């Protein structure tokens, strides 16, 4: 329509996601979102929703984007479970190393901010962490670990994966992050050896 400003919703959502990722939910105002997206406040509210709605859309976008990459990494778990878990960690390490992206992980920092989030936003963040554990447990079971061990390692690997994002924000080097991954993979190799 003539006179109406047109914008790409995916571009706006990506810009909002980066803003929330960089500053966190509590430290991101609607004015910050306006600057990041190039949209005025009324356009944000009418097209993207209020701050909570927009944040949940961004969190779901983030979880879908990286969830797909994690699923692809774990797809070879039945034949090569250790290689699959290594590839899983590579998704995180590559994201951390990308200079165009903020440090850390939008999901983990959102879970840590639960006290300042609405109950629906906090539930969305916790659900995203739960998806990671669920996909890991399924991959480890496909690789041959029994239920209890697959669950224990799924929780452990998900925790290590989240800690990589947190550690990256403290300035931990890429080499040190890889050492953390290697220790986890060594323990997992022993578990696979003991279960065969």
Commentary on this structure:
- The chain is mainly alpha-helical and 196 residues long.
- 76% of the residues lie in helices and 0% in strands.
- The protein has nine helices and no strands.
- It has helices spanning 9-23, 30-37, 41-48, 51-74, 81-97, 106-112, 119-142, 147-169, 174-195.
- The longest helix has 24 residues, at 51-74.
- The relative contact order is 0.12.
- The mean pLDDT is 91.
Summarize the structure.
This protein has about 200 residues and is an all-alpha fold. Helices cover about 75% and strands about 0% of the residues.
List keywords for this structure.
mainly alpha, 9 helices, 196 residues, 0% strand, elongated
Number of extended strands: 0
Structural class: mainly alpha
> Residue-averaged pLDDT, rounded?
91
* Helix fraction bin: over 70%
Radius of gyration: 19 Å
Approximate strand percentage = under 5%
Largest sheet: none
Q: Any idea what the shape is?
A: elongated
Number of helices: 9
Give the end-to-end Cα distance, rounded to a whole number of Å.
Answer: 65 Å
What letter string, H or E per element, gives the SSE order?
HHHHHHHHH
List segments where confidence is low: pLDDT < 50 over at least 5 consecutive residues. none
């Amino acid at each position: 329509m003539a006179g109406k400003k047109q914008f790409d919703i995916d571009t706006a959502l990506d810009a909002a996601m980066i803003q929330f990722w960089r500053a966190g939910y509590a430290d991101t105002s609607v004015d910050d979102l306006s600057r990041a997206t190039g949209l005025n406040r009324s356009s944000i509210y009418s097209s993207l929703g209020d701050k909570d709605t927009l944040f949940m859309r961004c969190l779901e976008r983030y979880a879908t984007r990286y969830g797909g990459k994690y699923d692809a990494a774990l797809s070879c778990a039945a034949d090569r479970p250790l290689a699959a878990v290594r590839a899983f960690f590579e998704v995180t390490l590559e994201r951390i190393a990308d200079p165009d992206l903020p440090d850390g992980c939008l999901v983990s920092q959102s879970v840590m901010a639960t006290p300042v989030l609405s109950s629906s936003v906090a539930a969305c963040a916790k659900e995203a962490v739960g998806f990671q554990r669920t996909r890991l447990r399924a991959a480890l079971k496909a690789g041959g670990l029994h239920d209890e061990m697959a669950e224990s390692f799924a929780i452990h690997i998900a925790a290590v994966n989240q800690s990589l994002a947190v550690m990256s924000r403290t300035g931990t080097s890429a080499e040190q992050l890889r050492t953390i991954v290697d220790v986890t993979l060594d323990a997992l190799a022993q578990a696979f050896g003991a279960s065969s």
